[in-house]
């Protein structure tokens, strides 16, 4: 081997520069795929949360042998999303006209819940009764909150107390609310966050009394001071 060959007299090898475009495309595709996966996870979580509070439709009552057919049950009403009352002013517990109805076969449960509500400051609680919409006690979910247009502020407060209840808007013309317990109901689970929110509602209402008496305006909750972080925490309750 000659000295010339050892000294590298020939041209040095040329190295091809790698283009970064394929790598960038791969990163974009990976990021897009991860985004799609997370969107599906969020969508499935939302669907699961909705399904967990949804109640099966009522079963018509049947007559005993030899007995006349029972009267038809009242119509159930329309489902409202769990955040459907977020823009509604929340009523204080003492303003809410409410009764507890039993749509399950747990005897005495409505009476117990009635007493629990009284202990929480609900002073206008009616006499507990069986639910006429589910006359066979066949409501398989945890609970429902039924209300009309005038009772939206009361329903808003109840939804913070019982976040696993399905919201049902019916055609009633007054401000009354029905809290209906189903087969999956065990008891009112009053969390610390719930107590804090109820206090915020009461404190705000004391500083902003209604102009004409009774419940405040149904819409326009922008000025009401409720900590949204507490509301979000309440809604994370496993149903």
Automatic annotation (TrEMBL):
<keyword id="KW-0812">Transmembrane</keyword>
<feature type="transmembrane region" description="Helical">
    <location>
        <begin position="21"/>
        <end position="39"/>
    </location>
</feature>
<keyword id="KW-1133">Transmembrane helix</keyword>
<protein>
    <submittedName>
        <fullName>LytR cell envelope-related transcriptional attenuator</fullName>
    </submittedName>
</protein>
<dbReference type="Pfam" id="PF13399">
    <property type="entry name" value="LytR_C"/>
</dbReference>
<feature type="domain" description="LytR/CpsA/Psr regulator C-terminal">
    <location>
        <begin position="95"/>
        <end position="185"/>
    </location>
</feature>
<dbReference type="InterPro" id="IPR027381">
    <property type="entry name" value="LytR/CpsA/Psr_C"/>
</dbReference>
<keyword id="KW-0472">Membrane</keyword>
<feature type="region of interest" description="Disordered">
    <location>
        <begin position="52"/>
        <end position="82"/>
    </location>
</feature>
């Amino acid at each position: 081997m000659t000295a010339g060959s050892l000294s590298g007299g020939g041209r040095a090898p040329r190295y091809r520069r790698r283009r970064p475009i394929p790598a960038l495309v791969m990163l974009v595709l990976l990021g897009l795929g991860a985004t799609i996966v997370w969107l599906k996870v969020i969508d499935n979580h939302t669907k699961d949360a909705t399904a967990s509070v949804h109640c099966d439709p009522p079963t018509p009552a049947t007559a005993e042998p030899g007995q006349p057919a029972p009267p038809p049950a009242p119509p159930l009403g329309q489902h409202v999303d769990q955040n459907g009352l977020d823009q509604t002013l929340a009523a204080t517990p003492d303003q809410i006209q409410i009764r507890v109805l039993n749509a399950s076969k747990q005897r005495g449960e409505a009476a117990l819940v009635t007493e629990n509500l009284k202990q929480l400051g609900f002073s206008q609680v009616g006499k507990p009764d069986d639910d006429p919409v589910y006359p066979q006690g066949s409501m398989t979910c945890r609970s429902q909150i039924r209300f009309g247009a005038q009772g939206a502020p009361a329903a808003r407060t109840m939804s913070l107390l019982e976040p696993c209840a399905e919201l049902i808007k019916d055609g009633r013309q007054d401000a009354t609310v029905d809290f209906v317990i189903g087969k999956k109901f065990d008891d009112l689970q009053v969390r610390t966050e719930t107590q804090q929110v109820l206090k915020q509602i009461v404190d705000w209402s004391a500083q902003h009394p209604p102009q004409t008496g009774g419940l405040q305006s149904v819409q326009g909750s922008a000025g009401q001071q409720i900590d949204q972080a507490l509301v979000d925490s309440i809604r994370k309750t496993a149903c």
